[in-house]
Amino acid sequence: KNEVEQSPQNLTAQEGEFITINCSYSVGISALHWLQQHPGGGIVSLFMLSSGKKKHGRLIATINIQEKHSSLHITASHPRDSAVYICAVRPNPGQGGSEKLVFGKGTKLTVNP
Amino acid sequence: DADVTQTPRNRITKTGKRIMLECSQTKGHDRMYWYRQDPGLGLQLIYYSFDVKDINKGEISDGYSVSRQAQAKFSLSLESAIPNQTALYFCATSDRVFTDTQYFGPGTRLTVL
User: Fold this and answer.
1) A2 pLDDT exceeds 90?
2) Nearest-CA residue of chain A relative to B46?
């Protein structure tokens, strides 16, 4: 059983569309991360959340701790946003160890011009 | 220059060979990690180190060993490579005292024939 589930697995959009990627998890956590993996393989950290909402440019990340759910939104999507977006959670101590990040399988986003 | 570097970037080897993947960082972080990524799976933690004298197994350490030669260097070894160790390997660093963000290297694509 995967502790972190992402949906959809694949997403194709037209340039300018509003994008939502979802992440659900099954354990108590101290933090949730959103990462971006470029087509060349490199991984960049986008957000770390423990509550509420964060915004950086056209990217917005939200988390609902009670519902164990997070969303990553991209406004006015652009072909350069094409990448794999990965959700990862840090379980609370006693639920897998505080040093372990549990990663989702990723959502592959393709934005067409 | 990149903060986290990995060498080699690509390696093709044969079953039974000993392989070393190297990671160096200039961020001054104490914590370093080795991850493995397989197609369709989330990143999995192989080993992590809090400092030169503190090395810990992750969830998939069998078949791997590590060495923390200095604060800035963390190497991953495959003593006797096997085909199912073909994967993309990432090194990462973090400074959890101030932030939970992980900084990833560019990855090493390893193929074991």
Assistant:
1) no
2) A100
